Amino acid sequence: MQEAFCNLYRRWDLLSHVDGAEYYVRVSVLNACRSRLRRRATDSRHVLHELPAPSAEAAVLRSEERAELIRAVDRLPRRQRETLILRYYLDLPDAEIATLMDVSASTVRSATHRALASLARTLKERS
Q1: Contact 76, 122 (CB under 8 A)
Q2: Which pairs from 27-30 meet CB under 8 Å and 24+ separation?
Q3: pLDDT value at position 37?
Q4: What is the mean pLDDT of residues 4-19?
Q5: pLDDT tens, 76-118?
Q6: pLDDT, tens digit, for every residue of 25-58?
Q7: How distant is the alpha carbon of residue 17 from its chain centre?
C-alpha cells in the first residue's frame, strides 16, 4: 500500500483528474500483489545446486600447499615479504605501500615482481 501511495504522489501531476487517484492506487496495489505472488511461485520452482563437498584428500593437499607457500614467503627478503603482505593481504595500492615503507612506488612494484618470480621458481622446484 505504501509503495502505491508513494508512486501516486510521484505521478500526481500526470493524473488527468483527481477522481482517478483511488483507481490508480487500487490497480497499483493489485499489480504489486500479483507480482509478489508470481515471484513466489517462480522462486519455489528454482532448483538450487550445491557444489560437492571437498574430499578429505583435497583438504589435506590444500593445507599442505598453503603451508608450503607460507614457508616460501618466509624465505623471501624482508622488503619483498612486506610488499607481498601489504598488497595481497591488506589489499593496499602501490602508492600507500610506498608511503608505509618509505620507498618509491617503482621500488614497491619491482620488489613485488621479484618476490612473485622467486616464489614461482621456489614452488616450481618443489613440484
Answers
A1: no
A2: 28/3, 28/4, 29/1, 29/4
A3: 79
A4: 73
A5: 999 999 999 999 988 899 999 999 999 999 999 999 999 999 9
A6: 777 777 887 888 788 777 666 666 667 777 888 8
A7: 49
C-alpha cell at 98: 610506498
Report the alpha-carbon distance of residue 79 to residue 66 in Å, rounded.
21
- Cβ-contact 98, 105 below 8 angstroms: yes
Cα separation of 30 and 59, whole Å?
52
Residue 111: Cβ-neighbour burial (10 angstroms; 0-12, 13-18, 19+): buried
Residue where the block lists cell 614467503: 73
Residue corresponding to grid cell 505472488: 37
